[in-house]
Amino acid sequence: MTPGQAILVVDDDDDFREALCEVLSEAGYPVEQAGNGELALRRIAVEAPGVVLLDLKMPVLDGWGVVERMRKDPASAHIPVLILSAYGYEWESELLGVQGFIPKSVGMEEILDRIRRIAGPPPMHH
Q1: pTM for this one?
Q2: Residue (of 38, 45, 35, 48) closest to 9 by Cα position
Q3: Which end of the chain is more exposed for a tag (fewer CB within 10 A), N or C?
């Protein structure tokens, strides 16, 4: 992840999304957020994030739709995607061509740990 690139958190669960954004920014990562897939794609088109954390079940456009559209577009095909879901779709994440699957049940510390492995260390150290 290059400095200045944000982690984009895409989830329609406001409480979970806010909590995760807080954990990430406290860890030193720049964070952007979107409440559904359509908004996420719009944000990605404006500025490519370093990593996308993506919920699967969302209104307007779900996670599968987001990944499909991202992978078809040369501008976003390379962006790493981590699926964050309350449901066990791990096998599907392989089909989707994403970088990983994190069950929401693991808790924030584990989620942060998995994100670090994909995103690398935070760009800024306080």
Answers
A1: 0.90
A2: 35
A3: C
